[in-house]
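Entry 12.
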Amino acid sequence: MAGIFGRIKQKLSRASNKMDKYQEAITFAEAGESDYAMETMAEQREDQEPTRLLVMGRESTFSKEIIDYALDMAQRMSYEILALNTAPLSCETFKLFSSSRNQICEEFKSMSEKSAGLFQEAAAEKRIPFDHVVMF
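Predicted 3D structure (tokens):
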């Protein structure tokens, strides 16, 4: 239980620090020091980690509708995209068929990467950072 309160406390502390920076920028902007205010806001943006939009495919594929929606949202919100493909069964499930286990897992990974390649090309056209992960 203490872990959850610790994380909440951290988030509140970060939010408080952000508000302090915004107040500082507003104060200097109102005093006619807009250059300093802009520098303060630029520092604030640099400190932020990029926000990622998690897009889960249906097994090894991403539908055109999901790709279009994710690209539109990521562009609107200035998000990066993290595309995720998950296998319906883990590679450990196929332990009994050890000779074909590696082949099945590799085929799934190959199909996933091919599908994600189309997604990545579309993201690159819109200059949206893109990462892809395959999990079993």
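Annotation: The chain has a mean pLDDT of 84. The beta strands are 52-56, 80-86, 130-135.
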